[in-house]
Amino acid sequence: MLQEILTVGFFTAFLSAAVRLAMPLMYGGLGEMIAERAGILNIGMEGVMLSGAFFSFAGAWYFHSIPMGLLCGMLGGMVVSLLHGLLTIRLAKDQSVSGLALNMLMLGVTSFLYKLISSGQSYQQVETLPSLPIPGLSAIPVIGEAFFNRDILTYLLYVLIVAAFFFYRNTNWGLNFIAVGEHPRAAESAGIPVNRYRWIAMVLNGVLGGIGGAYLVLVQLGVFTENMLSGRGYIALATVILGRYTSFGVFGAALLFGAANALQIRLQTIGVEISPYLLAMLPYVITLAAMLGAIGKNSQPEGLSKPYVKGMS
Fold it and tell me: Counting runs of H as helices and runs of E as strands, what totals does the chain give?
C-alpha cells in the first residue's frame, strides 16, 4: 500500500484534487478577506456561497448557458451580502447575529426554491466548464496538471489573488480600505467615506462568495443539492484567519484544507484500513490544528465587527 502512495501518479492526482477542492474556499476566503479588511465580519458566507450555488444552477438550467449561470450565481451571492450590509452598515446591528441569521435563512430559501423548480424530478444536471490546459506549463510534472490544466475560473482566481495583493500594498484605495477597517472614525476624520467603502466591500464579498458557490455547480458537480456547502462557508472564514488577512495567505490556507480533503478521499480510494468516518474528519481536524497554531498571531483589523455610526463617538 505504501508503494501505491509513493508514486508520481498518486501525488499528481492528489495535488490536482487538492486544488480543485480548494477553489470554492479560495473564492469565499478572498471575498471574506475584503469584507473583513473593511471592518465587516460576514459569518453569513455560508449563506452567500449557498445562494451562489443555487442561483448559478437555476440560471444555467433555465438559460442553458454557463455564463448566465455564473452571472446568476454572482448576483445571488451579492444580494445576500447586501442584505448583511443593510443590517450591519445601515442599521448597525450585530454582525455575528446577522450572519448566522442569513445562513439559516438561505438554507431554507434555497431548499424551498430548489423543490419548486425541480418539479418532482429527483436529479437535474447542467453542463460544467471544461479544462483549458496552458501549453507548456500543463506538462510540468506533478504541478502542471494541478495548477495549469484547470478551468477559466481557476485562472481568474490566480489573477485576483495577485491583484488583491498589490491593491492593498500599492494603491491609495487599498490603503483607504485598510484604514476603514482599522480605525473608521480616524478615516472619516481624514475625509474617507467609511460606509461607502464598506458597501463596496460587501458587493465584492457577495460576488466572490457567489462565484465560490457557483464553482461547486458549474465546475465540480453540475448539480445542486440541499445544503451542498456542508460548512465550506465557515472554512472560508477560517482561511482568512489562517492566511492572516492576505490574499496569498488565504490561497495557502484554502489549499491546506483542500489537500486534507483530497488526502482522505485518496486514502479511501486505495483502501487504507481506517474507518471512513475518521478519514472524513481529517480535513476538519487539520483545520482546527492550524487554527490552534495561529493563537497569538492575531492580525485582524482593529475595527472588525464593531458597528460604526457616522458622527457618534
Answer: 13, 2
Phi, psi dihedral angles at 149 (to 5 degrees) = -125, 60
Reported in sequence order, the residue ranges of 127-242 that DSSP labels E, i.e. its strands, are 132-133, 149-150
Alpha carbon of 261 to those of 65, 118, 143: distances in Å?
30, 30, 18
Work out whether the CA dihedral 274, 279, 285, 287 comes out positive or negative: positive
* Reported pTM: 0.92
Neighbours of 129 (CB within 10 A): 20
Which amino acid is it at 141? P
Q: What is the tens place of the pLDDT at every residue in 145-190?
A: 899 999 999 999 999 999 999 999 999 999 999 999 999 999 999 9
**Does 281 have pLDDT greater than 80?**
no
Domains and CATH numbers, the chain: 10-117+147-293 (1.10.3470)
Per the structure block, which three cell numbers stand in for 59? 440560471
Report pLDDT digits (tens) over 226-251.
889 988 899 999 899 889 899 999 99
How far is it, in rounded angstroms, from Cα 13 to Cα 269? 12
